[in-house]
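Let's see one such:

===
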Amino acid sequence: MSIAVLGSGAFGTALAIALCSGGREVTLWARDPATVTAMRETRRAPRLPEAPLPDSLTLTDNLAEAARAPVLLLSVPMQSLSSLLGQIDDDLDGTALVACCKGIDLASMTGPSGVIATAKPQAVPAVLTGPSFAKDIAAGLPTALTLACAEADWAQDLQRQLSTRSLRLYRSDDMVGAELGGALKNVIAIACGAAIGAGLGDSARAALLTRGFAEMMRIAEHMGARAETLNGLCGLGDLTLTCTSDLSRNYRLGLALGRGTDFNPNLTVEGAATAQALAKIAETTALDLPICTTVAHLVTGALSVSQALDALISRPLKEE
């Protein structure tokens, strides 16, 4: 069975490279024809130049052609997902749409599975998420991810198709929990990066990571997710990785904010938009989300790092 990866960013490219093992038919779609031409000539991808593209990997800029595959991995920024789905034909009965993006859509205030269900109700939605960096996956380093799908038969089939010798997938039927874990940890990573960038130390980062995880659990419970999902790879596992490595874009954005330095505006940082979505949720519910709300104000420039710190440490003392 053939697989198409829609999106030639670092993560999409890494997945395409990894999936080429085992004789799979894999297509990687990029939006820009010039990018596809360059990748064909050099067998390198601009967002992951250190990893050679296998000769067996098909490269295309023809979305309709790529979307004929029965399994589509959607590896585009969260805020672009709805637009991408709108460009794909509606005849998707028997097609699995596997979201590889992490975040909350600001227009619908839903995660990727909700966007898929609205845009393409005849397709089978799934979520692939967990602690992973593109360069590790492309290099064949051991990586474990969560594959969430509500349909048991599809979940087992996708698990078999998308697992490799180095890429180990664990099944879950809790799509809401899986996608929330991947989305929310990015917000906490920005907070942790800001703490380190501002010179507040590892103890402050540990406190933000732990209390941030408490907020993640609070949000997940409110949205109907299961606690054990957030305690797994797609929650605690991804949170730990993202909050402790400068390979994470969200963490690096936090570092830049904490240091008062510039950050590359061309890099997609999903946590910035997710924080703003969470701030809106906090406004309309009784959820107490001080770290997420503070990050939202931080990334929009409404608060400086010192003001954000003051806002957090001046909160009333309470039980853990």
